[in-house]
Amino acid sequence: ADEAARSITAREGLLSEAILDCLIAAVGEFDVRVQKRMLRAASYGLHFACKDETYRNKNPGRPSHEAVAFVRASRKLRVLNAIRRQGIGFAMTSAQYDAVMPKGVVARLMAAGRPSLAASISEYLKLGRRVRDYARAMKASAFVTSPPESSMTDSQIAEEAIRIIQGKEKGGKKAQDEEEDSLSSPPSSGMYASVALAAHRSGRKGVADLLIMLEESPEDKVHALLTIGAYADAAAVAAKARDSNLIYTTISAYEGGLPNNEEGKSLYFSGIINKFPTEAVNMFTSYYCRLGTLAVGDANPAVNIFLRRQKHTEAGLMIAKK
After folding, report:
1. pLDDT given for residue 308 in this prediction
2. What percent of the chain has pLDDT over 70?
3. DSSP H or E stretch at residue 182
4. Which DSSP symbol is given to 317?
């Protein structure tokens, strides 16, 4: 073998070409045994090149082009072999992998209902943070919607979902380098809210309540609360964020969730005045003071609001102006 390698090095650039050809042959194979043979041949060529004085690395102090290609081919094969397993069924070729790219592979796995493998691949390939966070959120959503062990409580299910979202689930590898240290930073906005909605849709309201409290994005938290019908809680979050658009969105969603009749109008007024925070009530009052009338029933909603809030002076002034 050494003699064959020396004969290859007799021509400049032939050793590099032989290494790259072995890598191309390896990624083009479906048989794992043939893949390993090709990788061993390429590895031997790399080791021989390091000892050969006629072989010069074009980037001294940095990995050679062939070494980088070897690592990339090994990582690609590991991913391809994982998705080609009988239980997964993605018989993807190397050319198809290059066409859809790693993010496309992860997206297809999530669409096929394989969020756990998608999350593992996104971590292994060190894809962008948003991709990894989305994959972990999908994995956590699959966990909270799957039939749990009979002994698991809502609190335990929520704790495990949180560990998945944060990349700290049991049996997972801890970050080693600086790039992986970013996994310990707060998850991207909307992750807890999306998993909470998945839990709510599966009938696990307790899990949803525990997860949604951890959401730090006011906008995502408000929209999640509106989706599950917690209008007063959504208004409280919007008021705390001092976001008038979110407050208005909450009021509009609450109105849209009530029947369009006298009973619905009464519930609309009483619900906002009695359950919503002061900021929402003030905006509600100001809005109807300018609007003047309602589409259903009450011709003087502002007066009605002031009376319900026990602000009789303002109600009297409003009547006197008319």
Report:
1. 65
2. 75
3. none
4. H
Give the whole-angstrom CA distance, residue 26 versus residue 20: 10
pLDDT of residue 279: 86
Helices marked H in 146-291 — which ranges?
154-165, 178-181, 191-201, 205-212, 218-227, 231-240, 244-256, 262-275, 278-291
Q: What pLDDT sits at residue 297?
A: 44
- Contact of 104 with 127, CB cutoff 8 Å: no
Amino acid at 186: P
Buried b (16+ CB within 10 A) or exposed e, 210-243: bbbebbebbbbbbbbbbebebbbbbbbbbbebeb
Please give the pLDDT value at position 37. Answer: 94
Identify which of 233, 175, 235 has the alpha carbon closest to the alpha carbon of residue 208. Answer: 233
Report the distance separating Cα 215 and Cα 197, nearest Å: 12
Token code pair at residue 232: 């007063």
> Residues for the chain: how many in total?
322
Q: What is the 3-state secondary structure (H, E, C) of 49-88?
A: HHHCCCCCCCCCCCCCHHHHHHHHHHHHHHHHHHHCCCCC
- The pLDDT tens digits for 263-306 are 887 788 788 888 888 888 888 777 766 665 444 444 466 666 66
Residue 191 to residue 165: CA distance in whole angstroms: 7
Query: What three-state secondary structure class fits 151?
Result: coil
Rounded-to-integer distance, Cα 85 and Cα 41, Å: 25
Distance in angstroms (rounded) separating the CA atoms of residues 154 and 144: 9
